[in-house]
Input
Amino acid sequence: MNLEKLRETEYRKCAVLLAELLDLDAGIEEKIEKCFNRMGIKNFFQHLESADLAPETSEKLQSIQTLIDILDNKRGAGITCGKTHGIPRNF
Output
């Protein structure tokens, strides 16, 4: 599998999981996946307004962005939160 296909597959998985987590319909899931492919996940969350989603959906996604920011900040502080296969996992 080439790198591009792998990236598309991972973006698809992320969009499906996000849609399940937030109880989004298939149309919004597809729109999010297209945005992931076009701009990447990090840029998608940084520029949610460009995705042209319903306000309720945007609010849910902003909550996810807040969680991502919190985890990024903790990871930067070097806080260890458990182990995965013997490798410390930092959050």
